[in-house]
């Protein structure tokens, strides 16, 4: 027997009916009550890391319900070659440079805090073009 595909909105409605009958409404999260969450990842020379984190944390980044200034940091080596029109903080134009750096990642609650955190990062970072990434997080 052939079955016709179920339209996705019908499937979503059935899933929500099922989950609401299993999970108490007080334990479910809604988009309206919780802002979107993002992860900010940036790379910094080790001597500048504390100042950058202070600036980014001041925006409200790295906050969980009962904790603040939360992040995870790992050491590494960054590599770059400044171009002719660059104004490098470290190294010289045209020369390959390797620098001890830290990768720092933290959660940002809401787009506004994320945008403020990125602006603070750019302002506090010593590099002409700081390396950073922003990821939108999903709850499962």
Question: How would you characterize this protein structure?
Answer:
The chain has 140 residues and is α+β, with helices and mostly antiparallel strands. It has a single domain, classed as Alpha-Beta Plaits. The protein is built from three helices and four strands. The chain has helices at 8-22, 49-57, 111-124, and strands at 37-45, 72-80, 97-109, 132-137. A four-stranded antiparallel beta sheet has the order 2-3-1-4.
What order do the helices and strands come in, and which of them pair?
Elements: H1 8-22, E1 37-45, H2 49-57, E2 72-80, E3 97-109, H3 111-124, E4 132-137
Antiparallel strand pairs: 1-3, 1-4, 2-3
Helix pairs in contact: 2-3
CATH class: Alpha Beta
> Considering DSSP H and I runs of 4 or more, what fraction of the residues is helical?
25-40%
* Order of adjacent strands in the largest pleated sheet: 2-3-1-4
What CATH architecture do you see?
2-Layer Sandwich
Show unreliable segments: 1-31
């Amino acid at each position: 027997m052939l079955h016709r595909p179920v339209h996705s909105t019908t499937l979503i409605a059935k899933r929500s009916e099922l989950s609401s009958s299993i999970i108490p409404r007080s334990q479910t999260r809604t988009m309206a009550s919780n802002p979107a969450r993002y992860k900010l990842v940036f790379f910094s020379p080790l001597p500048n890391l504390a100042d950058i984190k202070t600036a980014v944390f001041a925006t409200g980044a790295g906050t969980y319900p009962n904790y603040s200034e939360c992040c995870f940091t790992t050491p590494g080596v960054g590599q770059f070659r400044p171009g002719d029109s660059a104004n490098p903080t470290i190294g010289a134009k045209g020369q390959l440079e390797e620098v001890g750096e830290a990768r720092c990642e933290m959660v940002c609650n809401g787009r506004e805090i994320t945008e403020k955190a990125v602006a603070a990062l750019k302002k506090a970072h010593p590099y002409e073009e700081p390396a950073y990434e922003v990821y939108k997080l999903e709850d499962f």
